[in-house]
Specification:
mainly alpha, Leucine-rich Repeat Variant, 0% strand
Length: 132
């Protein structure tokens, strides 16, 4: 994951669709909190790179929905909700995903926001919800 902090490494990583596919498979196959958080952190690092985000948007148009699913599926996990929110907030700095998603997830994210366990994540959740 440390390598993804280098923009050149991100470009190389996202150039091959198989790498992102594998990240998503790992998140789906393993219900381990630490593994899911690591996948979300990796996505967040990819989204910070403009070429990385553009490539992922073009190749995986349902990526934001996938992260919303993780938030609702693991709403009892502070770390998964926090990392997914950070990744979403980073991805939504571009309007491409907002147009794809519409307001479908707003009520679900609002429900997660009401959980007192996620008090520290409320500013990020608010930012994500406002972007929808």
């Amino acid at each position: 994951m440390q390598a993804l902090r280098d923009p050149r490494a991100v470009i190389e990583f996202v150039r091959e669709k198989v790498h992102i596919d594998r990240l998503l498979q790992i998140a789906e196959e393993y219900s381990d909190e630490e593994v899911t958080v690591t996948v979300l952190r990796s996505l967040k690092l990819i989204f910070k790179s403009d070429p990385g985000l553009d490539n992922v948007i073009a190749t995986f148009p349902s990526m934001v929905e996938f992260m919303c699913v993780l938030i609702t599926m693991y709403s009892d996990s502070k770390s998964i909700v926090a990392e997914a929110c950070f990744a979403l907030d980073t991805a939504l700095r571009r309007p491409h995903y907002i147009n794809v998603m519409g307001t479908k997830w707003v009520s679900r994210l609002e429900a997660v926001k009401q959980d007192p366990r996620h008090a520290a994540t409320i500013p990020t959740l608010d930012s994500v919800i406002k972007k929808f």
